[in-house]
Amino acid sequence: MAQQERAVKTRRAVLEAAAVVFAEHGYTAATVADILRTAGVTKGALYFHFDSKEALARGVLEVQMDRVLPEREIKMQEVVDLAMTVAHRLPEDPLLRAGARLSTDPVGRRQYGSAWPLWVGELSAILGEAHRRGETLAHVVPREVAELMVGSLNGVQLYAQMESGLRDVEYRVSVLLKHLLPSIASPAVLMRLDVAEDRGARVLAEADREQGEESGQQGQVAVPA
Amino acid sequence: MAQQERAVKTRRAVLEAAAVVFAEHGYTAATVADILRTAGVTKGALYFHFDSKEALARGVLEVQMDRVLPEREIKMQEVVDLAMTVAHRLPEDPLLRAGARLSTDPVGRRQYGSAWPLWVGELSAILGEAHRRGETLAHVVPREVAELMVGSLNGVQLYAQMESGLRDVEYRVSVLLKHLLPSIASPAVLMRLDVAEDRGARVLAEADREQGEESGQQGQVAVPA
Predict the structure, then answer these.
(1) Chain A residues with CB inside 8 Å of B24's CB?
(2) What are the HTH tetR-type domain coordinates in residue numbering (chains A, B) (predicted)?
(3) Residue A156 is nearest to which of B116, B155, B183, comparing CB atoms?
């Protein structure tokens, strides 16, 4: 394995270990020693990438949205897909759970920030494009709706986490979207949206296939060259 | 002051002090010593009412909904009034803030429970009555909507707390209601609802006046008797 590739893998392993520890214990109670033990890397390797607990928290927040999803003809479907794939990933993805917990820590976030501006920015951009294409109702203000969605999605996820250990998070996010979207999307768009509970799983499987095909094609191109 | 009245006042002072400490430090970091210092009562007085930190947390959760609001001809307005008065009280009411924080503590709530079942129960009851009276759309399931509202309201409040120190919480709750209610209430009911940002302040002023009149009347009856 090339040295750079190894460094990328180590960095990722450290971030995932940090996420496990932050999601479980919260920022204040977490220690770099815990993260070191969970990651199974040397102290030198960890400090090469992150020089403090704060840097680890920032690192975890930065990779919240590294999953690329398929583009859709209807932009409002991309809003749904973002929410439903996050809901699907939450139970198995400590990075997302740590992001949610770090973003609601009133003391810690003064130091390392929050994942919310990233999510609000991403959703604002998609909703803004949907608005320009006439997919939304006339009164919709993209940024206002983006902030509303980040706040309410976070609340519904937290509710699912507390009440069912996230077992019903996809159902709850789907219920939220079914109740919010009629005030956001135009009727003609609304009836074309897929907000089923299993939407997140299907979109992620599709994204995996697309990525597999891409690296497959790259491989085919690379070999004869 | 009668002994019983004094006991009620002491109990309330202890609960409010506990709420201040829980809201600020969270359940795990809070100590009975902190609460004692904040309450300014004797150790004996505190332990007479609450024999542990856990009992204090339970006490705080039990008084979350002790504010009686005026009844309305349209039951859906009572749903709005509940949400908007909570939003208005949050910045000044440590009991509500502590209730929110205690309810989202994954470790603590295994011991003392959560305020959410109380809120879901109250909202389910009002929504159920609204449903029977034909104020809601046909597909509405009162309990599902009650859980959705508790989760999303909590999320939006948390968002306001983190992003503005609760300064814009009434605006954010009003935005949430404006986006949720069209999927819940029938159009004829919808156009009669008051979901303005200052609704909470007006309803609480009205409730104060009603209570003042009641105790005034009681006084008038008591004097000549």
Answers:
(1) none
(2) 8-68
(3) B155
pLDDT of B34 higher than 90: yes
Q: How far apart are CA A31 and CA A19, in angstroms?
A: 12
Q: Is B187 on the interface with A (CB under 8 A)?
A: no
B10–chain A Cβ distance below 8 A for any pair: no
Largest CA distance in chain A: 57
For A197, how many CA atoms within 13 A lie in the half-sphere containing its CB? 7
Give me the mean pLDDT over the A209-225 stretch: 62
Cα–Cα distance for residue pair B132/B157, rounded to 1 Å: 30
A9: number of Cβ within 10 Å: 12
CB contact under 8 A, A152 and B152: yes
CB of A106 less than 8 A from some CB of B:
yes
ipTM value for the complex: 0.91
Tell me: pLDDT of A215 over 80.
no
Cβ pair B78, B87 in contact under 8 A: no
- In eight-state DSSP terms, residue A166 is T
pLDDT one-digit tens code per residue, B175-186: 999 999 999 999
The reply to whether residue B148 touches residue A180, judged by beta carbons under 8 angstroms, is: no
Domains, chain A, in order of start with CATH, read 3-62 (1.10.10.60), 75-222 (1.10.357.10)
3-state secondary structure chain A: CCHHHHHHHHHHHHHHHHHHHHHHHHHHHCCHHHHHHHHCCCHHHHHHHCCCHHHHHHHHHHCCCCCCCCCCCCHHHHHHHHHHHHHHHHHHCHHHHHHHHHHCCCCCHHHHCCCHHHHHHHHHHHHHHHHHCCCECCCCCHHHHHHHHHHHHHHHHHHHHHHHCCCCHHHHHHHHHHHHHHHCECHHHHCCCCCCCCHHHHHHHHHHHHHHHHHHHHHHHHCCC
How far apart are the C-alpha atoms of A183 and B223, rounded to whole Å?
A: 56
Choose among B70, B65, B84: nearest CA to B210: B70
